[in-house]
Amino acid sequence: MNLPKSKICKFSDENKINSKELIDKILIDIYNNLDEYSKDLIRAYNFDVEFKNLYLVDCETGKKKILKDLIDCEYIESFEALPRKYKIKKVDMKQYNEYILTIHLNSRKSDHYSFEKYNYEVIPPAVILTNEHRDRIQQWSSLTDEELDGVLFEFDKLLGNILTELTGDKNKDDIVIFMDVFMELEKIVNVVDDSNDILMIWIHPLFVYSDRDILKGLIAYELSKYDKKWLEKHYKYILKYCKEYNLLTGKNLEILKRIREIAIKRKDNNTINIINELEFI
User: Fold this and answer.
1) What are phi and psi of 10, to 5 degrees?
2) CA-based diameter of the chain, in Å?
3) Three-class SS of residue 105?
4) pLDDT of the residue at 271
5) What SS3 string covers 168-201?
6) How many CB atoms lie within 10 A of CB 162?
7) Distance from CA of residue 130 to its chain's centroid?
8) 28 closest CA partner among 62, 56, 70, 65
9) Contact between residue 151 and residue 162 where contact means Cβ atoms under 8 Å apart
10) I need a surface site. Which of 4, 114, 231, 240 has the fewest CB within 10 A?
């Protein structure tokens, strides 16, 4: 909505601000008023910045010039803008995994330009993906239907061989392992169903890119929840799975404590050192 012209240019020339000069001031003040974590995302990780409710008002027409991102700010046309008082209202990190930071602003009429310090709201990301996690999602998502069929066939065959190696022929019919292609890619979790006589393990699809020893550790880890003999016998493989899990999620599994106990008892210094490295990350 355009304002009546009589109400627009009530300011003296010294109070009016050129749009290019004004947006430079606003961008500097936005950055200076951000928390250190948000600054790091922009400075160190090259996050794209999007704006909500950032606009200048043209003194001559009363029209709002809406600025959605830094490119809009860089190429803003030159005009005389009305002074306003701005503040950051909210910083939204929900698009963290797309390297986008959204800054919500609020402004009101003022006799001169200013930027108000404000205890703004921060919306954290639902899930923070590691680089490895993000890369595997891209690999998986780029598969054609034909490629996916081939990957599933080879993976099922590999899982069957690993299961036979772990359990022997006499027990393998009591356990069934599948890849669940419908799992949410952003959430790394395997699902075990023991409601029937057969134990069913559903493996997250991104583990298709893991090597044989890691998959062996994954299966042994899930089986160790039902019988600790799997941990005692295969703790080194389970540790390899723990390293892979940390690489994908940035988190450690609780079973590391039990692996440490076994390693101490067996004087396995190499395993202890690996656990120390994981816990230090």
Assistant:
1) -85, -5
2) 91
3) strand
4) 97
5) CCCCHHHEEEEECCCCCCCCCCCEEECCCCCEEE
6) 20
7) 7
8) 70
9) no
10) 4
